[in-house]
Specification:
Distance between the termini of chain B: 47 Å
Strand content of chain A: 35-45%
Oligomer: heterodimer
Strand order of the largest sheet of chain B: 3-2-1-4-5-6
Order of helices and strands of chain B: HEEEHHHEEEHEHHEEEHEHEEEEHEE
Structural class of chain B: alpha+beta
Largest interface: A-B, 85 and 93 residues
Number of helices of chain A: 10
Number of strands of chain A: 23
Shape of chain A: globular
Number of domains of chain B: 2
Radius of gyration of chain B: 23 Å
Largest sheet of chain A: 8 strands, mixed
Shape of chain B: globular
Chain lengths: 483, 457
């Protein structure tokens, strides 16, 4: 029945005089969220959704409609609504839309390699694992709150377009993490592991969660949260900053990944998410950072949350260099934005977070390449500085220039060695100056592929899961202060 | 509203036919939305969606879990109930849980709802977008225009094994428009937004003109970071209030000890002119009659003449905090639900000053239209950070002296509240996407607001 519905939707769209149509049927879209807080359930939710999304293009405009009503009549109505929207939108459009010419798969297949299907693991086992890890966070009365959480997503998709391309995919993401919140008076300190935003995530099976060893880290995380209550404030002033891998991953996300989304660069997101400091005519020449800076968007990276066979326009997954030796060389593109830029092919980054959303340009796995220094070598030669990791707050302006990040954890660096813990560290800067100040990059042993489950964009809002690989790295004369 | 026969009744039967010792509540939610985005002067992303889903929450021996599905066939409803029960069996006990709300007083009020808005459909929403585009283009020839129109309805029926069976429907219309000149160095921009439960009350032509007229005609100049007297327009005030809802009046923040108001209930946190109420029934906001547990909504004072009130509760957090559910439950399965019950229909009482008078009362300061990318830095002290955007102006000697380049603030909401000196006399409605959190508020003048860095535009 599922495949027949795709044909029904495509047929209904094509019968209404459009130039192009694509249909995504997602069934099922499963989500499992198990979380325990202080020995109680914080979230024990199992969701199953299904729906169809129809996107059409007339000569001048797009139209999109989605529904959960998976009957022939339901999807036919949905397709016609998409056509109505496109025709209405095109009434006053000044010029035709152009798309890149991207051959897609004729009958593609992509599936996440799994050893242990997370949806087949007994819920009792997972909840038991979470309860044990969460219990161990409570190392003292000042740990006011402990949280251990697990999430898994499973999306099975049929894609077909009026160009004759089509594929099926099944993509599974998992992740888990712990956090302890220590409170004394109005002072609140939180420590998370393996990272904030609920932990770490991967396109993988439950074996990834087992490998996180949450319970083994829990007591240490609880103690660190309590210790932060008494830690001295972060020193203020320009200083040498070493960022840990997880914080640097978020820095890449906010100040590189979003800035090179071509829809932002062209102003399509101007009113909401914003635009970009990157001018479209400077791709290939714009200095972005120091010569040590190399960034690529790689949708073929094993285990990445942004890894797939084809994007939601049917464009094959690919690796796109973004910054090479400090110069901007590429951007994240879709078929429409790629054509506008004059690219021969889309970069294949158009993704939707469900059947009821139209694809937008989203990050895939945007990685900062490792350098050749060990962690100790990155610290070497620093008389005074700070080492910061694990995000606590994040904000950046609507052109992705002025940023401010707070981290959960910080240590002084004194004469090349990590010193005492510091509290409420905040660092800020401007994107090109910051990346230009990077003068040491950690090697592969410091590099980690982090999953971010909550990248927001679009109206109506969409939440993308993306990955970022990052090493540790050193930055000079960065504004740092205590919050 | 979900049909009283068919899927809704099927779900109700599943709730009522559970074995002795097992209780449940369920929400049947229907949503129909049209969103028309425009950018670069043309409609770029017209979007329509319709969805019907159920969330089914089971409690057995104080073990609680939720399952959701979009499959409302008899098999789908049976499956979601079974999944919920199976998950509940492995849940840790919620020791203070005393059951789901009963069908007792207060009864849900009749609230404002616009059938015309729910029937507007794709073409109607497109016409609003076209009018905004035309008005903005006429008022600012050659400028770039972007924004969105969002129109739709969400209706939900809540049934539970205590005999409660209640429904509500909420109509929402939102529009926003940005008019900018990106080619200027630095660029200039103007912003306008509106929200209402009746789409006919969205003044599309006026919004387009307002955004165009608010775009600065001269180049924004750099302003040194520091503490300034600040006039915050409605969109900026709304954003701060929405964070205060979570950090100060959220039930989970209170329970977990990180609420910024945890030790200040019943104490003065703002001048007596500051009166903040949560009232989901008010026609001044985006009304709904019940929360997602079926509890009738009502007016709840949050800041009463400057005195901090109590946090929001639901059937989980209420017993933990020793209170009854206050009518602020969110869907238990939603990501928003992870913040627990929060006030979502905020009304800040107006004062008697015009915007001009707010400016006139400021010898040296800034006027801020809206914020961008606001995030919590320190929940216990309610310190936020974020950027200004789309209309930041210098005030000198009680007059607008010209546009300013944008700044980053890092400031406590509590400090901003405490420093309020004047409130505007006119209020505007603002809402997060689809009315998730709505705030109706005036502009305010606060005596000190800390900006910690500046950007280039």
């Amino acid at each position: 029945m599922s495949e027949e519905l795709v044909d029904v939707a495509l047929g209904a769209a094509e019968a209404n005089g459009i130039a192009y149509a694509d249909v995504r049927l997602i069934s099922p879209q499963r989500y499992l969220h198990l979380a325990v807080r202080d020995g109680s359930a914080s979230a024990l939710t199992s969701s199953v959704a299904a729906g169809v999304g129809v996107r059409v293009r007339t000569e001048k405009a797009w139209g999109f409609a989605g529904t959960t009503l998976l009957t022939p009549a339901g999807v036919r109505t949905t397709a016609r609504t998409a056509v109505r929207l496109a025709k209405a939108a095109g009434r006053r459009a000044p010029e035709p839309l152009r798309l890149t010419d991207d051959p897609g798969p004729l009958n593609g297949r992509y599936e996440t390699p799994l050893r242990e299907d997370p949806f087949e693991i007994g819920r009792e086992e997972i909840v038991g694992m979470l309860l044990e890890a969460e219990r161990r966070l409570h190392v003292g009365r000042e740990v006011k709150s402990g949280l251990a959480s697990f999430q898994a997503w499973d999306e099975r998709k049929w894609f077909r377009s009026s160009d004759g391309y089509g594929y099926r995919s099944r993509i599974v993401h998992v992740g888990a993490g712990i956090s302890a919140t220590a409170v004394r008076g109005a002072t609140v300190q939180r420590r998370s592991a393996p990272s904030s935003f609920g932990g770490d995530y991967r396109q993988a099976g439950f074996e990834f969660v087992r490998g996180l060893g949450l319970d083994a880290h829990a007591e240490e995380i609880g103690r660190e949260a309590v210790a932060l209550l008494d830690a001295p404030a972060c020193p203020s002033g320009p200083t040498t900053l070493v960022l840990g891998s997880s914080q640097l991953a978020l820095q890449v996300h906010e100040s590189v990944g979003h800035a090179v989304e071509l829809d932002r660069i062209f102003g399509s997101e101007a009113a909401y998410a914003g635009t970009s400091w990157v001018p479209a005519d400077r791709i290939g020449t714009l200095p972005y950072g120091s010569a040590l800076m190399n960034v690529a968007a790689d949708a073929t990276e094993p285990g990445g949350l942004g890894t797939f066979g084809w994007d939601d326009e049917g464009v094959p997954a690919q690796r796109t260099p973004i910054v090479e030796a400090g110069t901007l060389v590429g951007v994240l593109s879709s078929r429409e934005t790629g054509a506008r830029l004059g690219l021969s092919h889309s970069g294949g980054t158009a993704r939707a977070d469900g059947p009821d959303r139209a694809p937008l340009i989203r990050m895939t796995n945007v990685d900062l390449a490792p350098g050749d220094l060990s962690f100790e070598e990155v610290l070497e030669g620093i008389d005074e500085g700070v080492y910061l990791d694990t995000n606590r707050s994040w904000s950046i302006d609507d052109k992705r220039l002025n940023f401010q990040f707070g981290t959960e954890t910080g240590r002084r660096i004194v004469r090349g060695e990590l010193g005492e813990q510091i509290r409420n560290p905040i660092y800020s800067g401007m994107t090109p100056e910051f990346w230009s100040s990077m003068d040491a990059v950690g090697d592969r042993s410091t590099w980690h592929l982090w999953g971010l489950p909550n990248c927001g964009k679009g109206q109506p809002g969409q939440s993308a899961r993306v990955s970022h690989g990052a090493p540790v790295a050193r930055f000079r004369r960065v504004a740092v202060r205590g919050g | 509203m979900p049909s009283s026969s068919g899927p809704g009744d099927r779900v109700a039967a599943a709730v009522r036919n559970l074995p002795v010792g097992v209780s449940a509540d369920a929400r049947v939610v229907r949503e129909v939305w049209t969103t028309i985005r425009f950018a670069n002067g043309r409609i770029t992303q017209p979007h329509f969606e319709s969805a019907l889903r159920v969330s089914f929450r089971t409690a057995e021996d104080q073990r609680i879990a939720t399952a959701t599905t979009a499959d409302l066939t008899p098999e789908g409803v049976a499956a979601v109930a079974a999944t919920s029960r199976a998950l509940a069996r492995v849940a840790p006990r919620e020791a203070k849980f005393r059951g789901f709300p009963t069908d007792s007083a207060p009864r849900p009020a009749k609230v404002a709802f616009s059938r015309a808005t729910s029937a507007l459909g794709p073409e109607g929403a497109t016409r609003i977008a076209e009018r905004i585009l035309a008005a903005a283009a006429a008022a600012a020839p050659g400028a770039r225009i972007a924004g969105a129109v969002n129109v739709g309805t969400e209706s939900w029926r809540v049934v539970n094994s205590e005999g409660l069976d209640r429904s509500t429907a909420s109509s929402v219309a939102q529009a926003s428009v940005l008019v900018d000149r990106p080619e200027k160095e630095p660029p200039v921009s103007g912003w306008a937004e509106a929200a209402h439960w009746d789409a006919a009350r969205i003044d599309a032509d006026g919004l387009g003109r307002e955004a165009a007229e608010r775009m600065a005609r001269s180049a924004p100049v750099a302003v040194r970071p520091g503490a300034y007297r600040v006039v915050l327009r409605g969109p900026a005030v709304s954003e701060l209030l929405q964070f205060l809802s979570v950090l100060g009046f959220g039930g989970l923040a209170e329970d977990q000890g990180y609420s910024c108001l945890r030790r200040q209930r019943g104490r003065r946190i703002a001048p007596s002119a500051v009166r903040l109420v949560d009232d989901p029934r008010s026609r001044e906001g985006l009304p709904c009659a019940i929360d997602y547990e079926g509890v009738a909504t009502r007016a709840t004072p949050l800041i009463d003449r400057g005195i901090a009130g109590l946090p929001a509760t639901d059937s989980i957090l209420g017993p933990r905090l020793g209170r009854r559910p206050s009518g602020h439950a969110l869907p238990p399965e939603s990501p928003v639900g992870e913040v627990g019950p929060i006030p979502t229909h905020l009304l800040l009482a107006p004062g008697d000053a015009s915007e001009q008078e707010l400016v006139r009362s400021t010898k040296r300061g800034l006027l801020v239209t809206r914020f961008h990318y606001v995030r919590t830095v320190d929940p216990g002290r309610a310190i936020l950070t974020g950027m200004t955007r789309d209309g930041t102006y210098r005030i000198e000697r009680g007059e607008i002296a010209g546009p300013a380049r944008n700044l980053r603030f890092t400031e406590s909401i509590l400090a901003a509240l405490k420093g309020i000196e004047l409130l505007g006399r006119t209020r505007s409605r603002h809402a997060s996407e689809r009315g998730g959190i709505a705030a109706t508020c005036p502009a305010v003048l606060t005596r000190s607001f800390r900006f910690t860095s500046a950007t280039l535009f």
